[in-house]
Amino acid sequence: ELKVEQNPLFLSMQEGKNYTIYCDYSTTSDRLYWYRQDPGKSLESLFVLLSNGAVKQEGRLMASLDTKARLSTLHITAAVHDLSATYFCAVDGMELVFGKGTKLTVNP
Amino acid sequence: SQTIHQWPATLVQPVGSPLSLECTVEGTSNPNLYWYRQAAGRGLQLLFYSVGIGQISSEVPQNLSASRPQDRQFILSSKKLLLSDSGFYLCAWDLVGTEQYFGPGTRLTVT
Question: Is residue A101 within 8 angstroms of chain B, CB to CB?
Answer without folding.
Answer: yes
